[in-house]
Amino acid sequence: MKKAVIINIVGTVLKVCGPLLTILLARIFGAAEFGMFVSAQTLLLTIARTSTLGLDKGLYWYLPQNRLRDRLPYDGVMESFWVAVMVALLCTAVIFVGSFTPYIADEMPWYGLSLVFYAACYVLSNVSEGNRRPQNAVFINSFFVAVLAPATSIVLHFLDVPHALPLGLLVGQIGGFVLHYVLVRRQFPEMPLLPGKRVSKELLVYSLPLGFDEFVSSFLIRSGLWMVMLFLGPEKAGAYGIMVTISNALQTIRVGFTPILTPVVAGMDKERLKTDLKPVYSYCVFMVTFIQLLIGFFIVLFPGEILSIAGKDFIVQPETLGILLLVHLVAGFGGMTLVVINGIGKSLYTLKMDTFSLGVALVSGYFLVPSMGLVGAALSMLLYNVVAIVWNNVYLLKLGLRVYSSKLVSQVVWILALIAFYILLNMQVLVFTLVEKIVAYVIILAALGVYWKVMKKRMEADKNGVQTNS
């Protein structure tokens, strides 16, 4: 687990490259075209995730148990792979046929070419993570594909090649698929390409609720962007997309811990859930929020400088960025309870919770986006995240699981300090020059460094306790 955390921190550094190129992409293609691109890409991601039927997420839970149940170590891998590929091919065919009707845009088939590779990458990536090889997914997804796709689009644009944006996505996904396949093959060299059997009932029963939930949660995550597109148009959607991209630097930290925490929780029996879950979960929450604080203070201090990279057309309601940061800070502290719930096998609960959250998002977005613009979309996102976090924590308490250590109180103080700092800057109570901002950030980093040393000793004590119990 400690090794995986280090890998995730390295991945955080690599993840900076992709968003920077995406911001450059927005500047080159303009707000309107970039807004259409972001909307099409998010739709493609939703379809690709749904195409896996939840089997990619199910492998997080299923693979760690192969050895415990005397199954082949690669049981479930290629069965899930071929199901995802076949469903994705069917969806691609629907997109191509639909492009001859008024209901699907002419550009969508070019995006549809990437769909099969997206779905295949989801499965193979989660195989590596479920097999405790998170470094593979971190490098390929967070760096290689994230850099290759926008870089290819930029090159094609300057070569005057049409459809540069969807073709860039295609090249990136093909490259990612090849690397994922080679690395999975190295993990399971004896694994046949054609498994000769169907997906096991146990994996399917666990995964199908996750598959339905993946569709719901994908729609949920992207509902704000699509509502901005619907009510405010592609240019505003492009501006909102850039802010989401920047704030997602915090989200990716939390998401990166899912493949770390899920196999660990899945491997705990009932007794260990009572004794070891709290220190393990609290350690993950501490690491997630600590890294988020490092990034969050930087974004709060330099929002104009970051947005200016994309161009002046994207500086629209910049206070939206602060609300999106708050969303991910809150989710980083309280949202990982969902990982625990999936880890103990309660995938059907996740579907129910996300369906309710989607209702909250659609109703709140319908009223907030037209009246408040991008700020309304961000507030809608904050609202449904808070509802989900409260619901998840109450559910775990009903199961008799208490996951938060009292040592995390200091982390809450730091999060509140960041929020207060953001408010003071936006109300212009604090006004800094560029040099003063740099000095302030260095001081904050130094303070966080001291805090890290103190908390590390306290967390080490909990870790030693877990090792003793194990």
Keywords summarizing the entry:
80% helix; 470 residues; mainly alpha; 21 helices
In terms of topology, how is this protein built?
Blueprint: H1 2-14, H2 17-29, H3 31-51, H4 55-62, H5 77-98, H6 108-112, H7 115-130, H8 134-158, H9 164-187, H10 201-232, H11 234-256, H12 258-266, H13 270-275, H14 277-301, H15 303-310, H16 319-334, H17 337-343, H18 347-372, H19 374-398, H20 409-426, H21 434-469
Helix pairs in contact: 1-8, 2-3, 2-8, 2-11, 3-7, 3-10, 3-11, 4-7, 4-10, 5-7, 7-8, 7-9, 8-9, 10-11, 10-18, 10-19, 11-14, 11-16, 12-17, 14-16, 14-20, 14-21, 16-19, 16-20, 18-19
Percentage of residues assigned to helices: over 70%
What Rg, in angstroms, do the CA atoms define? 22 Å
Q: How do the helices and strands follow one another from N- to C-terminus?
A: HHHHHHHHHHHHHHHHHHHHH
Number of helices: 21
From the N-terminal CA to the C-terminal CA, the straight-line distance is 14 Å
Rounded average pLDDT: 82
The dominant shape is globular
Structural class: mainly alpha
Beta fraction: under 5%
Tell me how many strands there are: 0
Low-confidence stretches: none
* Largest sheet entry: none
